[in-house]
Structures are given as C-alpha cells and as structure tokens.
Recover the amino acids of this structure.
C-alpha cells in the first residue's frame, strides 16, 4: 500500500495579513507559470538617474528612438484599459515613469502586469525613452519582468509609518522618506570631510581593538563579554584613547580613528549605547592646537553639507562668529550669581544644587559637583560655539595639570547648541602621575564605581618608554550630525539599538 504525504506548507511570518496572502498567491502564480519572482539579475542598461541625466531635456511628446533597460521599485501605479502607468524609484530616490500599452507589450504581458504587480515590487522595463504628452520623461515599454516580488505592502507615508516604526524598520523609512535617505548621505559626507581634513594635516588613520581586557580612556560603564578561546572575561571598548596614545609613543606622531564605541548607559535623545567617535592625537600639540583642529574639521564639514548658519528652535547658530572660551568656574559663578572657585566648600555647592534643582549624590566630592552644576545650569544656555575650559582634574583623569593655574587641568569641551559636541586636552604623559591617577580610578572601581577606569599596566608601560607632548581630541560623530540636521540621535544612526518588539 502506497501512502502519500501531505505537502508541508511553507512557513509564514507570524504577522501575515490578508494583503500579504494575496501577494504570496501572486508569487505562487509566477512560479507555477515558470517565471522566477526573484531572478538573479536583469539586463539593466541604465540607472534611472542616468536616463534622467541624459534625456531630461526632452520636450513634451518627444521621442528618442533609444531603447533602455531600467529597473526600480514601483511606488505608484495606475492601470487603465489599454495603457498602464507606473512610477519606478531607485535607491537614491530618483524616479522615472514607465508606460505599458497594449499595442507595445501585447495582451498577455499587459494582463500579467495588471494581475501580478503591486506597489513595492521591483520590476524591469525595456523600451524607448520618450516624453509623454504631459512632458513626463518615461520609458515606453516593449517588455517587462518581475525583479523582486514584495510580500509586504508599503506603508502609507505619514499615516502608516510613525516614528517608532521608522526607526525600528529603517529599511521601510528609506523607501518612502527622502529625508531618511538624505540623512545617510549627509552623515557619510560629514565623516568623509573629517577624514579629508585630517589627511590634509598628515594624520594617519588606524584601527584599534574593540575587545579589550581592561576598560579605560573614559568614565563610562562597559559592556561585559567573554572570550572562549582564552577563557577570559573582556569588555567592549568605551574609548579608543589608550591604544591611539600607544601609537604616538611608538612614533606615529599624528594618528586618528573613527570607530564604534560601546557604553552600557542610558538611552535618550542624545545618548545611545553604541555610537561613533573620532579620536585624534598629535605629538607636540596642546589643547589650543587641538581647538584649531576641531574648528577646522567642523567648518569644513559645514561647508560640505550646506551652511555655517544653522537654524534651531533655540535660535540661530553662526559658525562664522566667535568661538569663545569660557572657564568652568567663572561661567558657573556668573550663572548662579555668586563666586565659585576650586576652594568653594561642598556645603555651598550642595545648597546651590538644591536651589537650582540639580541632583547630586552624597558621595560626590566638590569637583564632581562643580562639573554637574555646570553641565546642568550653564551648558544648555551656550548656543554659539564655546570652548569650556579650565576644568577641575576630576573631569579628565588623562589630562595634564594646567601649566599656570593650580587645581585645574588643560582640557576643554566644545559646546554648540547647548550640547557637548567634542572634547580635547593637553595629554598627561608623565607615567608617574598617570599611575597615581589610574590607581585612584581603580580604587573607585573597587568601591563600586562602574564608570571608573581600571589600572592598565601595559598603557603605563608604554608611557614609561617616553611619550612626546601631545594634544588629543574626542569628537562625537553622531552629535555633529545632529547639529547639522537638527534631529535626535536615533535619526542620525542608521540602525540604532532598540528595545525588542513585544509579542
């Protein structure tokens, strides 16, 4: 006795809709008729952009006699009796009209188009380049074929694509919103400009480890992981600083890296657990040289993406204007209406914090409180480019002591639009002082401070071989893109980290 097994149905997405079932049926019909709904390729001769560039001058109802093969995603379709219209779109957003007439493609092909093609499909069209009677540049098809059958319908712009969906399904966002695609190109242009600026200053780009035995280079909580090959606990890097400085010790006098950083901290409109930074280090430079480098990079990036004048909700930012310098203690003093110095007692600072609604932790020392007060009270008011400098040592354990002002360090943060965009300092190269600083950091880590750095013996050994005087920069790429586009950090990162979807 022969038994016949029931064919196992193809697995379906968990959220399949009636529209998807209709599209899946069309896919099946293509296969049944011997047509591949996802061919390996098509005989495309031109991109849509190339057709527009070459033939965009055509007058209404003009023909060319030129045959092209083009492909794109169907974003508009209108089917009438004997003539069908479709708008095709390619990756950069360029659109071109396709026309299919009964006379040119035949009854079978036209019927197939009407019954099988949906919005979102990728199709291939071959035909003559013409201009329609209304003056619309078009390809009058003599044949068409399916390139990729879309099983999910495109969302209705502004109605079916809320902010959460846009960020979570960025691929859909890119399909339907010009602004989303432009963000990708803007970010790439900014990064390219930064690279070019540094290359023109004889900097060398390098890559440093993302997996590290010891976390350091910043005050941040790291992500923990485990390397099975060594049976070794490791962390994802929170900064590129310590390895780049090793390179300078070794003789690479001007060095930089643009790379991903990981910090196991909060998520909001200005912070992401993974983000991109530029760090650069230059031998025989100091904080003031690095300020010139920073300004040059930002102005060049502004020229690349548009304008040095940026309109914000808080007012107009003029990058052509003065890039002022503001000391931490004078700036805080002016803001709170009383003089604050490195000698100001902790009780006074806590009273100021209470008055201004700034939360401070009981274990914080006076330096930490001053940094927090400035960040909460003064920083948001700094609309124009401002180098905030003369910080207390707690701000940067890797910066050198000020050359002429006891109790301060040579470091600055660049504030534009009320937000920190980058930082720099004259680097600490004395291995004895650096060991003291990192030892104190390691004590804080042992006491439960998850953001404190660990003692990196190999980094200290490198400094003990003799590091030249140097300046260093840290620039947040995402925050620079945010400045030029006036968007939140989730919009500037192509695929930001999000909470898992429920259900």
């Amino acid at each position: 006795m022969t038994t016949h097994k029931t064919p196992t149905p193809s697995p379906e997405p968990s959220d399949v809709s009636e529209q998807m079932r209709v599209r899946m049926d069309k896919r099946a019909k293509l296969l049944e008729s011997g047509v591949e709904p996802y061919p390996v390729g098509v005989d495309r001769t031109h991109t849509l952009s190339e057709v527009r560039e070459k033939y965009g001058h055509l007058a209404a109802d003009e023909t060319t006699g030129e045959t092209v093969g083009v492909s794109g995603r169907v974003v508009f379709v209108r089917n009438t009796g004997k003539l069908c219209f479709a708008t095709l779109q390619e990756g950069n957003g360029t659109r071109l009209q396709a026309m299919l007439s009964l006379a040119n493609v035949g009854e079978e092909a036209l019927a197939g188009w009407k019954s099988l093609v949906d919005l979102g499909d990728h199709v291939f069209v071959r035909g003559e380049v013409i201009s329609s009677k209304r003056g619309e540049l078009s390809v009058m098809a003599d044949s068409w074929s399916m390139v990729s059958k879309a099983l999910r319908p495109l969302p209705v712009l502004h109605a079916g694509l809320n902010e959460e969906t846009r960020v979570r399904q960025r691929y859909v966002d890119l399909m339907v919103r010009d602004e989303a695609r432009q963000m990708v190109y803007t970010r790439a242009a900014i990064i390219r400009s930064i690279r070019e600026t540094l290359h023109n200053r004889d900097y060398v780009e390098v890559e440093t480890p993302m997996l590290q035995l010891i976390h350091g280079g910043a005050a941040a909580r790291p992500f923990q992981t485990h390397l099975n090959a060594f049976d070794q606990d490791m962390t994802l890097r929170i900064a590129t600083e310590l390895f780049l400085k090793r390179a300078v010790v070794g003789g690479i006098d001007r060095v930089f890296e643009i790379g991903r950083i990981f910090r196991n901290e909060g998520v909001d409109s200005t912070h992401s657990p993974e983000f991109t930074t530029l760090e650069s280090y230059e031998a025989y430079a100091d904080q003031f040289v690095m300020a010139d480098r920073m300004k040059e990079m930002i102005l060049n990036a502004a020229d690349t993406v548009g304008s040095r004048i940026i309109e914000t909700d808080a007012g107009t930012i003029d990058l052509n204007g003065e890039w002022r310098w503001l000391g931490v203690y004078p700036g805080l003093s002016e803001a709170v209406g009383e003089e604050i110095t490195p000698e100001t007692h902790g009780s006074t600072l806590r009273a100021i914090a209470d008055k201004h609604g700034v939360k401070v932790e009981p274990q914080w020392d006076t330096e930490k409180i001053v940094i927090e007060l400035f960040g909460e009270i003064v920083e948001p008011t700094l609309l124009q480019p401002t180098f905030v400098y003369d910080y207390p040592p707690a701000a940067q354990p890797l910066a050198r002591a000020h050359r002429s002002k006891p109790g301060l360090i040579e470091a600055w943060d660049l504030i534009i639009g009320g937000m920190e965009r980058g930082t720099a300092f004259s680097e600490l190269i004395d291995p004895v002082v650096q060991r003291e600083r990192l030892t104190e950091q390691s004590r804080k880590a042992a006491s439960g401070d998850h953001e404190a750095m660990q003692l990196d013996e190999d980094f200290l050994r490198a400094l003990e071989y003799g590091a030249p005087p140097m300046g260093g920069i840290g620039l947040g790429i995402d925050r620079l893109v945010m400045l030029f586009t006036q968007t939140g950090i989730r919009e500037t990162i192509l695929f930001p980290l999000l909470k898992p979807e429920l259900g």
Observations:
- DSSP finds 16 helices and 18 strands in the chain.
- The CA atoms of residues 207 and 238 lie 14 Å apart.
- The radius of gyration is 30 Å.
